[in-house]
Automatic annotation (TrEMBL):
<feature type="domain" description="CBS">
    <location>
        <begin position="66"/>
        <end position="122"/>
    </location>
</feature>
<dbReference type="InterPro" id="IPR029044">
    <property type="entry name" value="Nucleotide-diphossugar_trans"/>
</dbReference>
<dbReference type="Pfam" id="PF00483">
    <property type="entry name" value="NTP_transferase"/>
</dbReference>
<dbReference type="InterPro" id="IPR046342">
    <property type="entry name" value="CBS_dom_sf"/>
</dbReference>
<feature type="domain" description="CBS">
    <location>
        <begin position="1"/>
        <end position="58"/>
    </location>
</feature>
<dbReference type="InterPro" id="IPR005835">
    <property type="entry name" value="NTP_transferase_dom"/>
</dbReference>
<dbReference type="Pfam" id="PF00571">
    <property type="entry name" value="CBS"/>
</dbReference>
<dbReference type="InterPro" id="IPR000644">
    <property type="entry name" value="CBS_dom"/>
</dbReference>
<dbReference type="InterPro" id="IPR050486">
    <property type="entry name" value="Mannose-1P_guanyltransferase"/>
</dbReference>
<keyword id="KW-0129">CBS domain</keyword>
<protein>
    <submittedName>
        <fullName>Nucleotidyltransferase family protein</fullName>
    </submittedName>
</protein>
């Protein structure tokens, strides 16, 4: 039996019976349900004490004592959104219900707060034109194209939210109103979202200069808004914090096979022959963790690409580390990538 099921009581029980359930379940709340598990109300220690102060007998039906309008969270909500409601109403528990208001779980504030929650800012780059995906992007920014039942940008955001991140910045340029109207201030996900807008394209690193630099007080995640990945964000953060660099770039291994036999020679003599050799390289995966001082070094209206920015740091003697990604990763830049994402997103989300 799942622990929260021990807190369920039928609406026809007495106050005394409900108190027994409240004590035995040790969850600080009893969930009052009907015969089909629909939530009718909740009973807390405070409700019991108020009833006793009114000298209500223990034989009183629990329906006369319970809170008949308890706050609830929907089963589909992210953990961050659930936590936001609990903090807003100062709740220690919050019943989880499905679309028919049947009880499917119980959120516990202590359990949620004990999970990883990170204050690192997250910067999502969503200003590209997506010209290689036309005509799909004629009336829709590329990050807002749906993969499965959600826009690419929402899939990215949810990956961060589920990992415990709640401070987001989004950079826009092409059709910014579509992105702003959809995501708003982030309340839907229990997070905060601020926007910066590039009047003219500033390159892949220039938008860093538009951020409110006084708010960037921890390493900042920066990610292109057209990537689909199951990257372990906790591992990336731990790697960055233990390797003392000004930046960490995520990389992917890329294989290239020469379709011919390759010859090495000395003068006119052949020294070796290798048939269709495979060469392996690390390539930029479009995901970074950046030290606050590096972020703040990019001034407003600076046009610069990320490789150039990082090369400047390397030339200045600063350490720029790389973090190899072995997890799923797909850059949705071309039409065949987009179709591939549609066929692979379900298995990615089920991992």
């Amino acid at each position: 039996m799942k622990p929260w099921r021990k807190a369920l009581v039928n609406s026809n029980v007495t106050l005394e019976q409900a108190i027994e359930v409240l004590d035995k379940a040790a969850l600080r709340v009893a969930l009052v349900i009907d015969s089909s598990d629909k939530l009718l109300g909740t009973l807390t220690d405070g409700d019991v004490r108020r009833a006793l102060l009114k000298h209500m007998p223990l034989e009183t039906p629990v329906s006369q004592v319970m809170n008949t309008q308890p706050k609830t969270a929907e089963q589909s909500w992210t953990e961050s959104r659930t936590l936001s409601v609990m903090e807003q109403y100062e709740l220690l528990q919050l019943p989880l219900v499905d679309e028919d208001r049947r009880v499917v779980g119980l959120a516990n504030l202590h359990d949620i707060l004990n999970k990883n929650r990170h204050d690192n800012p997250v910067f999502l780059m969503a200003g590209g034109f997506g010209t290689r995906l036309r005509p799909l992007t004629n009336n829709c920014p590329k990050p807002m194209l749906k993969v499965g039942d959600k826009p690419i940008l929402e899939q990215i955001l949810l990956n961060f939210v589920e990992a415990g991140f709640h401070r987001f910045y989004i950079s826009t340029h092409y059709m910014p109103e579509v992105i702003r109207d959809y995501f708003g201030d982030g309340e839907k996900w229990g997070i905060t979202i601020q926007y910066v807008h590039e009047e003219e394209p500033l390159g892949t690193g220039g938008a860093l200069g538009l951020l409110p630099h006084d708010e960037i007080d921890q390493p900042l995640f920066m990610m292109n808004g057209d990537l689909l990945t199951s990257l372990n964000l906790h591992s990336l953060l731990e790697f960055h914090e233990t390797h003392n660099g000004v930046a960490t770039m995520c990389v992917r291994e890329y294989e290239h096979q020469v379709p011919y036999g390759v010859i090495t020679s000395e003068g006119t003599q052949i020294r070796s022959m290798v048939e269709k050799p495979v060469h392996r390289f690390f390539v930029n995966a479009g995901i970074y963790l950046l030290d606050p001082l590096l972020v703040k070094s990019v001034g407003p209206d600076t046009r610069i690409d990320m490789p150039t920015l990082l090369e400047q740091q390397i030339d200045g003697g600063k350490a720029v580390n790389m973090f190899p990604i072995h997890e799923y990763w797909l850059d949705i830049g071309r039409m065949d990538d987009f179709h591939k994402a549609q066929s692979e997103v379900k298995s990615l989300l089920n991992d």
